[in-house]
């Protein structure tokens, strides 16, 4: 399904002529649409995937109309390659099973979008991310998703039909069901949600979440979270052997809370500011704990940005650029 969205996006975005047709069709059919072009679905950047899927659904009727125009060679102005590619692409696009998959995946990934955006930031100041379980009420949610898919299918002339089931089937889903909605719930919604839940649990295991509990030791969380000490201690216990004076840790935590209760000025909210704010002599264990937390990698986004910037700066015509100049230009580009 995601591969189909990528192919359709490239079909229009990589041709100025087809791109211009899509823009004009969107303006005519969907004048209130927020987007006038498709977003290329990146294989590594999940935010682009989620946004690209949402835009694809928003302008879906215009996409189908453009594919029909190119397939029928309206105006006799489309080359043979465009006509040849548009036919199979249109046939797959108007498939009701694809429409259901588009809606289900889009609605599920919308829940993960805020966390996806947050993980791409250079600093994460929020509390530990927790899973929002959609699996338990999938029956209720899927009914609304199926109605949305039927509405989209109706706008492009797609009639929902019950897939054929046989005694033995090897090349397509063969799940028995009493209704069309129940069939797609068992074939698409439930398997996708189970897979998504499994991936979230793998990425945010209990150990990873215990490490993220270090954010409860930040001054702003000390004042607003009643159980900050318990959660912060979970992180401290994991690295107790690395602390300089673990024997005085309980006393430091009490002094840490008392200090910010009496503080009248603005409190630091980011980890980088806290490291400059902490008194190393009065709070050696807490300072060391924040140093450890600052060195724990969260994602590879910064590394991936650096690789992308390197290809922009050090092209084949600039292969002799010195190391110091390359580093300087890369830092200026990454940290704008």
TrEMBL record:
PANTHER family, per the entry: 52 KDA REPRESSOR OF THE INHIBITOR OF THE PROTEIN KINASE-LIKE PROTEIN-RELATED, HAT C-TERMINAL DIMERISATION DOMAIN-CONTAINING PROTEIN
Taxonomic source organism: Paramuricea clavata (Red gorgonian)
Pfam families reported in the protein's UniProt record: Dimer_Tnp_hAT
A single MF term (Gene Ontology): protein dimerization activity
Protein known as: 52 kDa repressor of the inhibitor of the kinase-like
Biased composition (Polar residues): 163-177
Ranges where the record places region Disordered: 150-177
Lineage of the species this protein comes from: Eukaryota, Metazoa, Cnidaria, Anthozoa, Octocorallia
């Amino acid at each position: 399904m995601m591969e189909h969205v990528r192919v359709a996006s490239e079909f229009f975005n990589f041709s100025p002529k087809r791109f211009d047709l899509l823009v004009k069709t969107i303006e005519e059919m969907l004048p209130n649409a927020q987007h006038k072009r498709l977003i290329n679905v990146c294989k590594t950047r999940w935010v682009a995937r989620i946004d690209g899927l949402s835009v694809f659904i928003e302008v879906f009727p215009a996409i189908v109309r453009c594919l029909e125009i190119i397939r029928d060679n309206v105006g006799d102005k489309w080359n043979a390659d465009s006509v040849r590619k548009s036919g199979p692409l249109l046939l797959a696009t108007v498939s009701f099973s694809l429409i259901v998959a588009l809606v289900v995946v889009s609605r599920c990934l919308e829940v993960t979008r805020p966390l996806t955006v947050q993980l791409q930031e250079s600093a994460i100041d929020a509390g530990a991310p927790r899973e929002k379980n959609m699996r338990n009420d999938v029956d209720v949610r899927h009914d609304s998703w199926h109605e949305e898919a039927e509405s989209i299918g109706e706008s492009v002339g797609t009639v929902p039909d019950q897939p054929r089931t046989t005694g033995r089937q090897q090349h397509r889903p063969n799940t028995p069901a009493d209704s069309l909605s129940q069939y797609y719930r068992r074939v698409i919604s439930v398997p996708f949600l189970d897979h998504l839940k499994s991936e979230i649990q793998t990425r945010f295991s209990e150990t990873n979440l215990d490490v993220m509990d270090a954010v409860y030791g930040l001054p702003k969380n000390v004042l607003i979270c009643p159980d900050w000490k318990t959660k912060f201690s979970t992180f401290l216990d994991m690295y107790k052997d690395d602390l300089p004076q673990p024997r005085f840790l309980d006393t430091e935590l009490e002094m840490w809370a008392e200090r910010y209760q009496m503080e009248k000025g603005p409190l630091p909210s980011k980890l980088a500011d806290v490291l400059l704010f902490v008194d190393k002599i009065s709070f050696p264990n807490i300072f060391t704990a924040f140093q450890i937390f600052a060195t724990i990698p969260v994602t590879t986004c910064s590394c991936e940005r650096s690789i992308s910037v390197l290809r922009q700066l050090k092209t084949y015509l600039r292969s002799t650029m010195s190391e110091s100049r390359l580093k300087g230009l890369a830092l200026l580009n990454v940290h704008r």
